[in-house]
Design goal:
With 459 residues, the protein is mainly β. 0% of the residues lie in helices and 52% in strands. The strands form 15 sheets. Strands 14-20-19-16-17 form a five-stranded mixed sheet, with no helix packed on it. The termini are far apart. The model is unreliable at 5-20 (pLDDT under 50).
Amino acid sequence: MACRIGAARVLTWKGVPVPGAAAALEVSSLSPVSGTIGTEVTIRGSGFEDVAGVRFGGAAGQFSVKSSAEITAAVPAGACTGPVTVTSRTGMAASRDAFTVRPGIALSAPGGPPGMTVTVAGAGFAAEEAVDIYLGADFSLTDQALASATSGGTFSGIAAQIPVSAPNPGTAVLTAVGRHSGLSAQAQFSVRDTVSVTSPGNQASVTGTAVRLSVGASDTGPGQALTFTAAGLPPGLDIGDEPGAAGMIGGTPTAPGDFTVTVTARDAAGASGSATFGWTVTNTVTVANPGSRAATFGTPASVQVQATDSQAGQALAWTAAGLPPGLSADPATGLISGIPAQAGDFAVTVTARDATGASGSAAFGWTVGNLVTVTSPGNQVTAAQSPVSLQMQATDSAAGQAFTWAYSGLPAGLALDQVTGVISGAPLLEAPLVRQVTITAWDTTGASGSAAFQWEVIP
């Protein structure tokens, strides 16, 4: 592959530079003017506002625009000696001076375990020559691979294996030598075991509930024992590093929140690996259902609702929906109390919420019945065989209700009309002469009221 460049272009209109246009794209200097693969080169010039690419010969390099007048770029694998070109939306410009690519090689990975295969790329060698790649700092070791350089003196994708017997930990050196030119270059490979930690994925827990989570890890080194550490765990949790418990996270979360956890496993040789995941801890509020409730219109009613929070010490704020009119919930205690002002069947939901926003609810029914009041006529004294007509009176909290009447204890000879509530007849002189009488009225909803009094029959 030969190095090629293009000419710079300037934004013009009918051959005249456009007034106010960005400065013309220009490359004025390189520093340094030579280097191997990976060398950082500072490119100075103008018009670098919207740079799209930097090439060393035909190879694109990674770059960073520092300002409209400065770029830094790394010499890429595949670079060849020649001008450095910069392209942007307005055109392309090449350096006046050539950048000389000195012999160098780059590895696909900076390090790894013994036996790993890496790929080798090189630049700066003679055109179209054979390049031997050796393992070692000299040529005394086995030839690992053979590369064929392009017309630009580059090659890439050449596989070389780090020996299984390489010192671990240690450093392996790969050397590339051009057969025709004698040009050579070296690269170091850090030999070390690789520890991999398997992420358990994001976790969710509840305060006060015990947790047990195993985090797995592997080591390319045979027989290596791993020790585990963890950063960012929720309060109350810890990770074990003892035999039989290594990598086991356990405990009871004591505080809610969103936590970023990093678990690291390390072997005896110092090799380590990590995995990072999220852990969300929330509180759980449980409201005890008080069960269905019954009350009477106009009669005081109350119920104390209870709740628990998975985090100790949390204060709860209470609300209630659907309560019968006249009742309310104390926001601090959860006590529902008041005097029902409307009869009916009500679906009530009580909610308790803690300071973290965690909440719980309980739903139950509350029936408020009508209030039926029977007016006592007072104690009665009647002569035997004397005619009696006594109209019983009753009121209902619900308008328009009709009553059904019943009695107990009336003297013999008297009766109660179930529809009108009139007691009539003539009492008989039968023992006991003084009787305890109870009159009850029911409305159509089943609500009832009673009145009790004495009735004495005299000769």
